[in-house]
Please model this.
Amino acid sequence: MGFVSRGFKGRRRDAASSSRVPPGQYVVTDFPVLSAGPTPRVNLDQWTFTIEGEIDEPRRWTWKEFQALPAETVTKDIHCVTKWSKLDTAWKGVSVDALMDGVETAADYTTVFSDGGYTTNLALEDITGGKAWVVYEFDGQPLHPEHGGPVRFLVPHLYFWKSAKWVRGIRLQKEEHPGFWESNGYHVRGDPWREQRYWGD
Amino acid sequence: MARAALLGRLEWQFGTLAEVVPETPRVSSLYLDVPDWQGHLAGQHVDVRLTADDGYQAERSYSIASAPEDHRLALTVERLEDGEVSPYLVGELRIGDRLELRGPIGGYFVWRGDEQRPLLLVGGGSGVVPLMSMLRHRAHVGNRAPARLLFSSRTLADVIYREELERLAASALGLQVLHTLTREKPAGWTGYTRRVDEAMLREVAWPRQDAPDVFVCGPTPFVEAVASLLVGMGHDARSIKTERFGATGG
Amino acid sequence: MQDMKLDGNAIGGLLREIFAMEMTTAVGTCAHCGAVNEVGRVAVYIHAPGTVVRCPDCEQVLMRVVRGKGRYWVDLTGVRCLELAEPEV
Model:
């Protein structure tokens, strides 16, 4: 152990080991905001969510149509690759299973894409079977722009960079296309339980 | 600056806290003895790194407040309510404690002191810190080209370096200091009492033909508003140097 | 939320780690829009899983840096050309 700053504690964090906290993470009670660019100004009158790519007929919902879809409230733990974890976060939105209902595709992979150009890649099996949602409420309130509002992706079993903010759609693909962070050092899958943070992990 | 100071990776080094000078209720200056300090230019900053006993680290950048000629390295830090590093620096760090730092950093937002063009400095809150290094340096080298500081603070009590700025302005060095307060109108106050706007800049800034060197520093929204107003008034964007401190100024 | 935006001064230390020289005075040409800016004036987002540097004119990505496990991953494809001056003796 090298130099220690006498008396420095840092932000409130709890590294107590728990079956809910993946290796190398600590639990926080605030909700840190991370951003790779300016917050997009999203006009809900023009917003659409699309499922496109390896699909016979792309699907598209306007905001009004999206809100009419059956929604769920889910409570999940989330884990950021920058080491903070937040437990019991409550979200409301539409499950990807509901959006993909009846879709036939030869695709095994997807790219989830957002306003502002951000992308992240996910295996189809990582977003189906009750693992992912397209959400528009956090903690009972409309999702704040700094946290990805009006609508973001939520796939809590993987590191939170995969839960793309300001989401606009899912592109179904036969091949894997590493997204914004996956093409620049971050692990292509990002399983926090196997501590898959970086290339080579 | 020496070639060696601009080439090669910077090592983390230690400063020892020698003195603390409270500047305002929320702001204090830390005077550090840094044995291997190579010198710096006015406007540069250091990165400060804190390590907790479980290995957790936090890093922040702080502008150097002292002039290159000063004996000790000074950092002026605003203690932020919900900050992680500033409440440690202003409140916990004691005389004799060591602080890990790296620098000096920055070649863009610097004023060397040999320029003869008029110098316009616009600071918001703790954005005044690197500008103060420039003014202290200016006093040391005796640069007489006209200089003006337009300094925006919340209230009179929040004005960092108030007495020292008065002294510098009164010492016939060609420096004018203009204040604006955004949340207070003290009795007898002769300065401005509003956010920096175009009318104020038109009164304070030299006409664009005088081609001043301009340095703007403070919270991001402040810097962007001021820079864009100056460009809108015809000032050459290339002679306006900016340093953004983020939402709260560091 | 422009508050999260900083400028190239904020990554002076990081760039010096990578390039082993002072970089804030380096001048970059944006590969997307061709704008030419000193590193000190580009838009920087450090509160992210990595550092993202964007063109102040068109907001497209100039550079990305990720650090972890003792390595850096640096993407400079958003910069068509970087001009640096030799430090004076």
Remarks:
- Chain A has three helices and eleven strands.
